[in-house]
């Protein structure tokens, strides 16, 4: 019997689970206040600035991803534009897949 995953019953894909020591995400009004404070302090994308471009930051990004043990606080946040955030997220996802042995 096939379940559409492309794997046989003998070698199922392991279910993803959040690590036991995963950092709890900040949500709600507290998160919105943190985003507003971040963009007020530095309204430009950090990565674009390094490359000599002035691009508005639209994403609150964790410098060290929560999945890799980074804290969800102001010491571990930076503002990125959508394009830079997407690229960084892709690289983090690839790193995570390599760690998982995919």
Task: Provide structural commentary.
The protein has 102 residues and is mainly alpha-helical. It contains three helices and two strands; from the N terminus they run ααββα. It has a two-stranded antiparallel sheet. It is elongated, with a radius of gyration of 18 Å.
Structure summarized in a few sentences:
The chain has 102 residues and is mainly alpha-helical. It is built from 3 helices and 2 strands; from the N terminus they run ααββα.
Write the layout of secondary structure elements.
Elements: H1 28-41, H2 46-50, E1 59-62, E2 77-80, H3 82-100
Antiparallel strand pairs: 1-2
Shape: elongated
Order of helices and strands: HHEEH
> Count of DSSP E strands?
2
**Helical segment count:** 3
Structural class of the secondary elements? Answer: mainly alpha
Distance between the termini: 23 Å
Arithmetic mean of pLDDT: 89
List segments where confidence is low: pLDDT < 50 over at least 5 consecutive residues: none
* Rg over alpha carbons: 18 Å
Give the strand content.
5-15%
Strand order of the largest sheet: 1-2
Largest sheet: 2 strands, antiparallel
Keyword list:
102 residues, mainly alpha, two-stranded antiparallel ribbon, 2 strands, elongated
């Amino acid at each position: 019997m096939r379940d559409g995953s492309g794997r046989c019953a003998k070698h199922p894909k392991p279910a993803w689970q959040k690590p036991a020591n995963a950092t709890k995400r900040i949500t709600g009004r507290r998160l919105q206040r943190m985003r507003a404070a971040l963009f007020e302090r530095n309204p430009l994308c950090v990565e674009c600035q390094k490359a000599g471009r002035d691009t508005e930051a639209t994403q609150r990004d964790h410098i060290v991803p929560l999945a890799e043990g980074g804290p969800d606080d102001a010491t571990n946040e930076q503002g990125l534009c959508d394009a830079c955030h997407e690229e960084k997220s892709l690289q983090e996802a690839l790193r995570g897949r390599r760690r998982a042995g995919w």
